[in-house]
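Q: I'm writing up a methods section and want to include an example of the input and output format. Could you take the sequence below and give the corresponding predicted structure tokens, formatted cleanly so I can copy it straight into the document?
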Amino acid sequence: MSELRDKTVQKDSMRFRRNIERIGEIMGYELSKSLQFNPHTIETPLGKSETVLHKKDIVLCSILRAGVPLHNGLLNYFDAAENAFISAYRQHKHNPESFEIVVEYLACPSLDGKTLILADPMLATGQSMVATYEALKPFGTPKEIHLASVIGAQQGVDYVSKAFGPEVKLWIAAIDDTLNDRGYIIPGLGDAGDLAFGNKLQQ
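A: Here is the clean output for your methods example:
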């Protein structure tokens, strides 16, 4: 986490992506403890081994483009998961201090009766996470929902907690106190998408 925040280390975009991926791996391990596991028998070349495996019913959805490294880290642990991707971004219509969340691209398998993990590294206002789930609703009703973020503002944590309710679990590596007047987390780490993949083209 200290490397993710350090503006000097951030100059190495490959290391920045890998650090988010590493947090995703740690988060995946912790999240896995809350999942349902069933007994399973493995056939070895010399006999049988009894173990437990979680049900292969996970759909991992990340918000493009910043969510890709976190998605990959989670996918390293939930390698049998189905995958969904959605583009959700802030559109500043009139001034930089007000915005709405715009969803333009979505690819998703059926969610009925499955475990949905929504991954977005930055939980600022929480509006992107809620807008993403609203866009996913036509694909079915999950049996459970997990939210995964690297850094969040307390305001965003409160917003998604109210929007999703107590039955939805939030997994987050760090919570900062405030947002600035443009809705960015303070002290945060900056724009995760730009740091991971380069500056966006401005239209």
